[in-house]
Design a protein that fits this description.
Blueprint lengths: L1 H15 L11 H9 L3 H4 L12 H9 L6 H5 L20 E7 L6 H7 L4 H11 L13 E7 L2 E13 L2 E8 L2 E8 L3 E10 L4 H7 L4 H11 L14 E10 L5 E14 L2 E9 L5 E4 L19 E4 L2 E4 L6 E4 L2 E4 L5 E3 L4 E9 L3 E8 L3 E11 L8 E2 L4 E5 L9 E8 L2 E3 L14 H22 L4 E3 L4
Antiparallel strand pairs: 1-2, 2-3, 3-4, 4-5, 6-7, 6-23, 7-8, 8-9, 9-10, 11-14, 12-13, 14-21, 15-20, 16-17, 16-19, 17-18, 18-20, 18-21, 21-22
Helix pairs in contact: 6-7, 8-9
Length: 466
């Protein structure tokens, strides 16, 4: 009986699943009449087959087995995430069409958008938000612009993306009636690298040919120009070495070059080492092993990539044809070469003079003055009273006035007297001291330790994050 009751217990739920039908219980008379009409065999109980009921363990196994579907039935079942009643249907993703535009020489952002069919009002509004993050002068041939348009209106710009460099994306996107700009950068991991070269034809070309980016090579030339006269001091066989940062992504992709951290220039067997140092006020300078700064004083060569074409002292004037005192030094350079302020100071005059042509005079501390003549043009903002910093561009090389070709005529005056800029010794700025010196020496020692690893054959070493 226990087995029968258990089987009945399992069958009842199944019966409940059958389609609903109209059912009426028969009366006693109907039962007796129908039973009398049946043969005796029909009234005998049905024999029970051994397998008609499952043994108790088998029943329990069936009850505990998970519900499974055959493959055709399972294919009809789709997983749908549960959403509470009243949840609104998700909005469909907006449909876009995309267009990639490659920048060619002479292209502008506004011109590229106009050529792509973007209305002028949209183009100006989008660029007004984009330019603070991506100035127009950073546009380079070969860069690509990704433009997204509304799929239903191919002139309606929805977004613009550009990659200024590896791992760096700048974008502007339509937000309602306005625009919003944003930028993203991959995390950068600094590595230390070093290049070395024999100086042939100048420090700058030697470094560039060795693999140092041009802007970093310029920074080294300008740093050493405080102490080195590149026209007189360089000899065959001189060497230069520079340690600098390479910024890489997590997977090792080169994202950009970082800062120059160290340089060594060997002239006639004597090595001059310098290290980069940033003070607590954020001002960056170059210092020697004792903490003495290279900056300060005066630049002996206030422009890059030039050669001295005429020295200080009496000479035969190339135009007038007679001997007269040459009160400065001349540097031959291509027209338009930047000219730098030799030291911090205040502009005294910016004007055109008969012999000098376009000329700038700058007053400096210690009753000194510098003069820059034959300029093709002045830098924007140059006027009497303007304060300038050492190394700031103040004009461009030219051939105005009494000149036989493009060059810079450079004079240095002390107490009203012209002196030789190439040989005059001027007061040096103070060296680091106290806590500032201790911080500098600690950083210098750590950098030298990393450089020693490069000397053992490594091409790069990872640096601690800034």
């Amino acid at each position: 009986m226990m087995k029968l009751r258990r089987a009945t217990h399992l069958l009842l739920p199944a019966l409940l699943l059958l389609p609903a039908v109209h059912f009426a219980w028969p009366t006693a008379e109907q039962v007796n009449v129908e039973a009398a009409a049946l043969p005796d065999a029909a009234l005998a109980p049905a024999p029970v087959a051994p397998s008609a009921f499952l043994e108790e363990p088998a029943i329990e196994e069936r009850a505990e087995a998970p519900l499974t579907l055959d493959a055709p039935e399972a294919a009809l079942v789709e997983a749908v995430p549960y959403a509470p009643p009243g949840t609104p249907d998700p909005e469909p993703e907006p449909a876009f069409t995309e267009q990639t535009v490659t920048v060619a020489s002479g292209d502008t952002l506004l011109g590229l958008l106009t050529e792509a069919g973007v209305p002028g009002a949209d183009a100006h509004a989008a660029l007004a938000e984009l330019l603070p993050l991506f100035p127009a002068n950073r546009l380079r041939p070969g860069q690509e612009l990704l433009l997204r348009f509304d799929a239903e209106d191919e002139t309606r710009l929805m977004a613009l993306e550009i990659n200024p460099g590896p791992g760096h994306t700048v974008a502007v996107e339509r937000q309602g009636e306005g625009w919003q700009a944003d930028e993203a950068r991959l995390p950068e991991h600094p590595h230390l690298a070093q290049v070395e070269a024999v100086v042939t034809g100048g420090v700058f070309p030697a470094l560039v040919n060795a693999g140092l980016p041009a802007n970093l090579a310029y920074s080294i030339v300008r740093a050493y120009s405080h102490r080195v006269d590149f026209q007189r001091d360089l000899r065959a066989g001189d060497r230069v070495a520079v340690a600098f940062e390479r910024m890489r992504s997590e997977d090792g992709t080169l994202l950009r070059h970082g800062r120059v951290l160290y340089a060594a220039l060997t002239l006639s067997g004597q090595t001059q080492e310098i290290w980069r140092h940033e003070g607590p006020d954020g001002e960056v300078g170059w210092y020697d092993a004792a903490g003495r700064p290279l900056a300060g004083g005066f630049l002996r060569t206030p422009l890059n990539g030039a050669r001295m074409s005429s020295g200080f002292g009496p000479r035969r004037h190339p135009i007038l044809g007679y001997n007269r005192m040459h009160r400065g030094v001349d540097f031959a350079a291509p027209t338009g070469t930047p000219i730098y302020a030799a030291s911090d100071g205040v502009v005294l005059s910016v004007r055109r003079e008969r012999g000098y042509g376009n000329v700038i005079r700058v007053r400096h501390a210690g009753n000194t003055m510098t003069l820059y003549a034959h300029l093709s043009r002045f830098a924007p903002g140059m006027a009497a009273g303007t304060r300038v910093r050492q190394g700031q561009t103040i004009g461009r090389v030219g051939s105005t006035g009494m000149s036989t070709g493009p060059h810079l005529h450079y004079e240095l005056h002390v107490n009203g007297q012209a002196v030789n800029p190439a040989t005059s010794r001027l007061p040096a700025p103070p060296a680091l001291a106290g806590r500032a010196l201790l911080q500098y020496q600690t950083a210098r020692t750590d950098l030298n330790r990393q450089r020693a690893r490069l000397a053992r054959g490594l091409t790069e070493v990872a640096l601690a994050p800034q």
